[in-house]
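pls design
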């Protein structure tokens, strides 16, 4: 079964009793810090929230799921990648629901601890059951916070079981994070028409983008290869155009925007640079920008383009 790490953090939806242990300081037994017991109302409210979250996830209703996340929430997925902000986390869930329709949750065990009356931590193990009945499991840690009377997920960590770490790495390659680029796209302006075809290559080791730019005066193509660089822990890309130009870029992520620092060599030998950005607006719309453009040390105006999915 295809495994999407961010699904496992949903194990935080389940609760059970927690234990308090004494600790030794300088060789002596000491009493643990006293944390006020949570009010019964808080316990009941959090449980009710968790029940609603489970139901929303099992129904695959993305808006209901994300209503339980704080705007500034963060999430570390099964590969240790950090995602910050509700919008970016929402995009991950949308892809997960699309690729795993009908997936359900089942609790095996969990532990809950109130750090303060308005902050609770959940740890445990759950099983994810897909539509065919296949099961997968993982560990989780989730921090819930009560904001303006409502319990929200502030932080979530998805942790693979030790015996499954290698399998998880094989089943969920880092490049799948950019899977939203796959498809056929089109962008139009007063002077140009651009088509973009993006697909997987070499057993999903690369994403390959093919751009075709047409206008009354021009017709050229650009091919870009995108891969994950394990030495640097980031995405990298290399591009080649039909005029003999070429270049490469290093990718970073800020919120839900991917920024690519580009350096290129033009056919006449001049060096160009720019900061390119990609953002998934929704399942059928991409936003692209080229900022801080220079050729031979001379600045060029910024460029902006919206791509619409055609297939």
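designed seq:
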């Amino acid at each position: 079964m295809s495994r999407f790490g961010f699904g496992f953090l949903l194990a935080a939806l389940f609760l059970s009793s927690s234990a308090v242990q004494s600790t030794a300081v300088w060789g002596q037994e000491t009493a643990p810090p006293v944390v006020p017991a949570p009010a019964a109302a808080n316990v009941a409210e959090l449980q009710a929230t968790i029940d609603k979250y489970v139901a929303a996830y099992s129904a695959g209703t993305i808006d209901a799921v994300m209503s339980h996340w704080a705007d500034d929430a963060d999430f570390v997925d099964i590969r240790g990648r950090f995602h910050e902000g509700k919008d970016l986390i929402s995009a991950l869930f949308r892809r997960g629901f699309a690729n795993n329709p009908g997936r359900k949750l089942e609790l095996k065990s969990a532990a809950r601890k109130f750090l303060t009356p308005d902050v609770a931590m959940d740890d445990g193990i759950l099983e994810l059951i897909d539509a065919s009945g296949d099961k997968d499991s993982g560990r989780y840690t989730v921090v819930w916070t009560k904001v303006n009377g409502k319990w929200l997920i502030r932080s979530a960590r998805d942790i693979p079981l030790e015996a499954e770490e290698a399998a998880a790495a094989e089943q969920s390659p880092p490049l799948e994070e950019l899977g939203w680029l796959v498809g056929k796209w089109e962008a139009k302006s007063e002077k140009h028409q651009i088509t973009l075809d993006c697909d997987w290559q070499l057993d999903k080791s690369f994403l390959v983008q093919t751009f075709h730019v047409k206008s009354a005066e021009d017709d050229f193509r650009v091919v870009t290869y995108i891969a994950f660089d394990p030495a640097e822990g980031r995405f990298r890309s290399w591009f080649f155009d039909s005029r003999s130009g070429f270049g490469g870029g290093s990718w970073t992520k800020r919120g839900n925007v991917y920024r690519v620092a580009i350096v290129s060599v033009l056919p006449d030998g001049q060096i160009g640079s720019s900061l390119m950005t990609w953002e998934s607006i929704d399942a059928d719309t991409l936003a692209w920008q080229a900022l801080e453009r220079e050729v031979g040390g001379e600045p060029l105006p910024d460029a902006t383009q919206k791509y619409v999915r055609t297939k």
